[in-house]
Amino acid sequence: MNDFEQDDPIPQGDLALQITALPRETNGFGDIYGGWLVAQMDLAGTAMASRIAGGRVATVAIDRMAFLVPVAVGAQLSFYTQAVACGRSSIRLLIEVWSDDPLSSEWRKVTEAVFVFVAIDGSGRTRPMPPRS
Question: pTM, whole model, 2 decimals?
Answer without folding.
Answer: 0.88
